[in-house]
Design brief:
The protein is built from 9 helices and 44 strands. The chain is an alpha/beta fold. The strands form 6 sheets. The chain has a 23-stranded mixed β-sheet that branches. A 10-stranded parallel β-sheet has the order 2-6-10-14-18-22-26-28-30-33. Strands 7-11-15-19-23 form a 5-stranded parallel β-sheet. A hairpin with a 2-residue loop joins strand 40 and strand 41. Helix 7 packs across helix 8 and helix 7 runs antiparallel to helix 9. The longest helix is centred in the last third of the chain and has 29 residues. It is rod-shaped and about 165 Å long. The two termini are about 80 Å apart.
């Protein structure tokens, strides 16, 4: 029987090894562990001794063949010795194949590993078949190398599955695989296609710093825990389809176009890197599997299917598209080119507290608008904060008005560029609020002007506030005119002159009585009508032609300066809300 030679290693293993085939270049020789009762590994054991050893094996027994080089016939002979006639499949107990080398096809299809399975640092020079295999204990494939295709389709990992630093040089198949424990693929390399369609992860799925060179699609898969892609690299166009509770993409790099179709997930996208269009979208309906039926989602029976964004800090958003994503808890400070982000569908933001709160004798009420999570956190930490602001914003840090003002400005521009003026209005309001509260970058005089602008019309966005002030101003004007501005009686004109003796030309001088305030009956229906006429004309810069007292003249001048401004602010607010 021919025996493959494993790759030479300068250091001997820490188990009793065979040592067959030592050379000056490889003084260690074969690293295969001794077969019990012999001083050789299974590959270099004499034929009679090998046959006797294989005959002594029974299904479910533990085996230890660390470092052993396997040919395809030798592996088949070992698995035949562990064949269970009742199930017609191989059944192994604890299986040690650490640093083993497999030439040809390594066929573990439908095998059952009743204990742990250790294939760490193993080398599969041909195709590796674990289709429909069952791992009842932990399975370790850390640093394993699959030079051919590796198929784990429909396999079941009842314990933890470790593929950290594994290298898949051919296709890697995990379609319909079930991971009942944690699955770790950290730093794994997938040089060809990685198939995870219909895979189910009952706990976390860790792909930190994994490399996907040609993954055209990743999923759809269902993960009851977290899908961890932090530090991973995607070398080509890819579509990722996950139904998961959380998806972590910190410092993940996309070298081509990508689309994330998600359900139920909270996404952390901080410091992700992409130079091509990338879309993050919420999938409304369950994913349809390649064989037709929808994906099973029992793990999310009580969870909303919405997708929530946790962070975009450190991201260059110039090529980012968000569709139907909940942004109420998203951290935006530190995002680059945020004004170029595209928001499609229904992207929701946080809202201000809906109720009116009383502090001592005065009411405190916040106008309903869309807000950022960082503003919620900042307001909740103020000494004068009212209940209702969200203080539980993870990772918000020490962010205040100075940092939030440019974020609101960028989002306002993004909405304006998409021709959504009503949506941009809320972010303009937030921008002005941050300027008004910023004590480092806004001068005292500017804050005073902004406070007046806010008080009169909500920065030109609250028509009800401007109309309320207009009505109040007009009422005050009417009362003042009725009290001091209208004369007691209509002024009469008198003509006086002297007729010269003997007749001749007569010259008349026409005078008008000086207006006088009434001493009583100032608030009558007739005087109200005159005051209302003067006030309404002042709103549109027109003179009523009504005779007024000196005080009334100044009252009319003041009203003609203030009331049209308030009317203009109300019209501006309505326009900002309905403009498209």
């Amino acid at each position: 029987m021919a025996h493959p030679n494993p790759e030479p290693s300068p250091n001997p293993p820490d188990w009793p090894y065979c040592g067959h085939g030592t050379t000056p270049e490889d003084p260690v020789g074969c690293r295969g562990i001794h077969v019990p009762g012999h001083s050789m590994c299974l590959a270099h054991l004499a034929d009679a001794d090998r046959d006797a050893y294989l005959a002594s094996l029974t299904p479910g027994v533990g085996i230890d063949h660390r470092g052993t080089p396997f040919t395809e016939p030798l592996l088949d002979a070992l698995l035949d010795a562990l064949h269970d006639p009742t199930t017609r499949q191989s059944r192994l107990g604890d299986a040690w194949f650490t640093s083993a080398a497999f030439d040809g096809f390594a066929g573990f299809d439908s095998a059952t590993f009743q204990g742990f399975a250790a294939f760490d640092s193993a080398t599969f020079r041909g195709d590796a078949g674990f289709t429909s295999a069952t791992f009842q204990g932990d399975a370790w494939f850390e640093s394993a190398t699959f030079e051919g295709d590796a198929s784990f389709d429909s396999a079941t990992f009842q314990g933890n599955a470790g593929f950290a630093s594994a290298v898949f040089e051919g296709d890697a198949g995990f379609a319909s695989t079930t991971f009942q424990g944690d699955a770790r693929f950290a730093s794994a390399t997938f040089q060809e296609v990685a198939r995870f369609a219909s895979a189910t992860f009952e706990h976390d799925a860790g792909f930190e710093e994994a490399v996907f060179n040609r993954a055209a699609s990743f999923g759809p898969l269902v993960c009851a825990g977290q899908v961890k892609l932090s530090g991973a690299v995607f070398g080509g166009p890819v579509t990722l389809s996950f139904a998961a509770r959380r998806v972590e993409c910190r410092r993940t790099r996309w070298s081509s176009t990508a689309e994330l179709r998600l359900r139920y997930a909270t996404v952390d996208f901080s410091h992700a890197v992409f130079e091509y269009p990338l879309t993050i979208a919420a999938e409304a309906a369950p994913f349809v599997l390649p064989d037709g039926p929808p994906a099973e989602e029992q793990a999310f029976a009580d969870a909303p299917a919405s997708v929530r964004m946790a962070s975009l800090r450190g991201v260059d958003a110039a090529h980012l598209v968000l569709a139907d994503v909940d942004l109420s808890g998203c951290l935006f400070t530190g995002t680059v080119h945020l004004d170029q982000v595209r928001l499609e569908g229904t992207c929701s933001f946080g809202r201000v507290p809906p109720r009116t709160h009383w502090r001592y004798w005065r009411p405190i009420r916040f106008t309903q608008r869309r807000t950022l999570a960082e503003e919620q956190h900042w307001r909740a930490t103020l000494p004068t904060a009212v209940p209702g602001w969200n203080v539980a914003v993870f990772g918000a840090g020490n962010v205040g008005p100075a940092q939030l003002e440019p974020v609101y400005r960028a989002l306002r521009k993004a909405f304006e560029d998409s021709k959504n003026e009503p949506g941009a209005a809320d972010f303009y309001y937030g921008e002005m609020e941050m300027r008004r509260h910023d004590r480092t970058g806004t001068t005292r005089a500017e804050r005073g002007l902004l406070h007046g602008y806010w008080l009169l019309s909500g920065y030109g966005l609250r028509a009800s506030r401007a109309l309320g002030w207009l009505a109040t101003t007009m009422l005050i004007t009417i009362v003042l005119l009725m009290s001091f501005g209208l004369p007691q009686d209509d002024l009469q004109q008198e003509a006086t002159g002297t007729v010269p003796p003997g007749g001749g030309k007569v010259t008349f001088k026409i005078d008008k009585d000086d207006p006088r305030n009434p001493t009583r009956n100032r608030f009558t229906g007739e005087r109200f009508e005159k005051a209302l006429n003067v006030t309404l004309n002042s709103v549109v810069f027109r003179s009523s032609g009504q005779d007024l007292t000196t005080a009334g003249t100044y009252i009319e001048m003041a009203s003609r300066a203030t009331e049209p401004v308030l009317l203009g602010l109300a019209v501006l607010a309505v326009r900002n809300r309905v403009k498209r």
